[in-house]
């Protein structure tokens, strides 16, 4: 039965890591980079998942007829009714053409001691 050379390999690795040579520095940098990547990977995946969820949530539309939520743009896949746009505007809602609207701004003195408007 052969004797294991485990102690020799551990001693060799310790010498390489403790030696101030380029091989020791390379191994320490490699181990440090892998450790940093393993620590930051869950944070990066969590941030990417959060951004993806926000994008999906903005694209979801709820049907006013049946309440079904989907990513369809024209027609509800559940009941077939229209999902918005010009045709689904409820009567009585005021929609202004903003290209023809003028906003008048009046400057009012902000002095709290004056009593007249």
Features:
117 residues; mainly alpha; two-stranded antiparallel sheet; 2 helices; 2 strands; 3% strand; elongated
* pLDDT averaged over residues: 80
Radius of gyration, CA atoms, in whole angstroms: 34 Å
The secondary-structure class comes to mainly alpha
Report strand %.
Answer: under 5%
Strand order, biggest sheet?
1-2
Q: N-to-C SSE series? A: HHEE
In terms of per-residue confidence, which ranges show pLDDT below 50 for 5 or more consecutive residues? 86-90
Helix content: 40-55%
* Total E-strand runs: 2
C-alpha end-to-end distance: 104 Å
Shape: elongated
Largest sheet: 2 strands, antiparallel
Helix run count: 2
What does this structure look like?
The chain has 117 residues and is mainly alpha-helical. It has a domain at 7-84. Helices cover 44% and strands 3% of the residues. A two-stranded antiparallel sheet has the order 1-2. Helix 1 (6-18) crosses helix 2. The longest helix is centred in the middle third of the chain and has 38 residues, at 22-59. The radius of gyration is 34 Å and the shape is elongated. Residues 86-90 have low confidence and may be disordered.
Describe the secondary-structure layout:
Layout: H1 6-18, H2 22-59, E1 61-62, E2 69-70
Antiparallel strand pairs: 1-2
Helix pairs in contact: 1-2
Explain briefly what this protein structure is.
The protein is mainly alpha-helical and 117 residues long. It has two helices and two strands. The model is unreliable at 86-90 (pLDDT under 50).
